[in-house]
Every structure is written in C-alpha cells, then in structure tokens.
Amino acid sequence: MNKMSILPFMFISLTACSDEPTAFSSGAFSSGACPSETNYSPAFLKSDFYSGWKQLHGNGTRRANCKAAMRYFSRGVSQGSVFELSALYLDYCDDGSHILPLANSSIYTGEKQENGIDYDEFKWVLDLALCDSPIEQYALGNMLVKGFITDKDIQKGIYFLSLSAHQEYVHAQVSLAQALVVEGETDVAALWLEKAKENGAHVFAAK
C-alpha cells in the first residue's frame, strides 16, 4: 500500500446507527452530571437540537433513538436554530442522505459559515468533550486541527480525535487518520484508516 495515497480521502459511513444499546448509557451521562442544564440559555434548552439530544439518550437502542431524534436534528438544520450541533448529530445518526448541511457547517469546514456557532454551542462542545462524549470530542478535535474559533493546534486536535476514535466513532477515526498524515505519522494513520473501514466507512482516495 502506498502510505501517502490515503491523503486526501473522503468517506461515507453506512453504520451510523445500529441496534446496539446507545453509546451514552453509562458513566456521567446516566448519572445526569453531564450536561448541567444550568450552564445553558433557556432558548438553547427549548431548541429542537436539545429535544433531539434527549430523545437520543433514551433507553432504547441506538437505531431506535436515532430514528426518534432525527426529525428534531433535521428541523434544527432547516430552521438554522442551533444549526451546528444539529448538523453534527444529524451526521451521527445519518444513513448517508444528509450531506448538504455539512457543507454549511463551520465545525466541518473549519471556516465561519452563515449560521456560525454561538456561545451555547461552543460551550456544549467543550463541556461534553470533557464528559467523554465521542461526538463532541470529534467536533473539538476538528476545530483544533483546523484552527476554527480556537488557536490551531494539531497535536491537541489529534488528542481529542484519538479519544473519540478509541470509542469507535468512525468519523473521528477517518479525521484522525487525515491529521496524522499531515503530521507525517503515515503508519499510524494507515492503521486508523483500516480500523475505520472495518467499522463500515467507505473510503475513497482523491485523485
């Protein structure tokens, strides 16, 4: 395998939602310690995103919870309310049919888009990344690698992407591989890319 052929690459995951128990059924999430509602504005707590997030953290399987939450995340994206987090979680639950919102996401592109990211959203990413949520660890890692809102720090970005990737979040595994290639760690990058493929990512080398 030509190690450098893995940069750049893109992927589509077909395994975002399965019949496994939800990934947040233990630890700080089950105890109610994360997140603390007192840290967020009333508007945020009434948003479609937050309603969807609570649906996602129900007692059902991940597939069932995602199905219940998707309509809230989709509405959050279409209405532009808590857009960034709605797009982030829509991507988590997605079956591959919601690509366009990601092109308008500041978190994904690393550049300020029309909706931007507000204070509640940024605080949420920080809080839940530290609460060991793989989705927010992935988001924070991307932001650090790309220097969006935060100072660009590839090593710190790799750290948070690694935390998420070790929780089997396939999106983070691909992003981690990309960041590692930039740092010259092509052997480790190839291992993470292979792991992402095993977890259902379809990876295509860009020509």
UniProtKB/TrEMBL annotation:
<keyword id="KW-0732">Signal</keyword>
<protein>
    <recommendedName>
        <fullName>Sel1 repeat-containing protein</fullName>
    </recommendedName>
</protein>
<dbReference type="InterPro" id="IPR006597">
    <property type="entry name" value="Sel1-like"/>
</dbReference>
<dbReference type="InterPro" id="IPR011990">
    <property type="entry name" value="TPR-like_helical_dom_sf"/>
</dbReference>
<feature type="signal peptide">
    <location>
        <begin position="1"/>
        <end position="18"/>
    </location>
</feature>
